[in-house]
């Protein structure tokens, strides 16, 4: 009886050491719902102050283009899953980064707007090898 208890204890210890676990992680870069928040931008009417209020703050970068300025907001989503074992670790990360670009004229009015959608509805992918 005593020998079988040692065997069971050894088997449980081996299982605990080798079976590790699973992990899920999600990171949102800046404010991932920027697309929804700036949907009310109307080129030719929206001012810089209104744009910044809708976006929740100043842009990630401002690039001068002659008398105009290009406001860029970077945002996105990342989702990671992993099976972590003592012997082998298998993981996958999906990352979608977007940029929203707003061309501001010399009067501080949004002249044009382009909003990326690469990170929209980023899926969780459970299999680390391929598609």
Architecture blueprint of SSEs:
Elements: H1 2-19, E1 21-29, H2 34-37, H3 48-55, E2 61-65, E3 68-84, E4 89-104, E5 110-115
Antiparallel strand pairs: 1-3, 2-3, 3-4, 4-5
* Average residue pLDDT: 85
Straight-line distance between termini: 51 Å
Number of domains: 1
Helix content: 10-25%
What's the count of strands? 5
Radius of gyration: 25 Å
What fraction of the residues are assigned to beta strands by DSSP? 35-45%
The SS-based structural class is alpha+beta
| Unreliable segments of 5+ consecutive residues | none
Shape: rod-shaped
Question: What is shown here, in short?
Answer:
The chain has helices spanning 2-19, 34-37, 48-55; strands at 21-29, 61-65, 68-84, 89-104, 110-115. It is of the alpha+beta class and 131 residues long.
What are the defining features of this structure?
single chain; 131 residues; alpha+beta; 3 helices
Describe the protein's architecture and organization.
- The chain is an alpha+beta fold and 131 residues long.
- It has one domain.
- 23% of the residues lie in helices and 40% in strands.
- Strands 1, 2, 3, 4 and 5 form a five-stranded antiparallel sheet that branches.
- The chain is rod-shaped.
- It starts with a helix and ends in a 16-residue tail after the last strand.
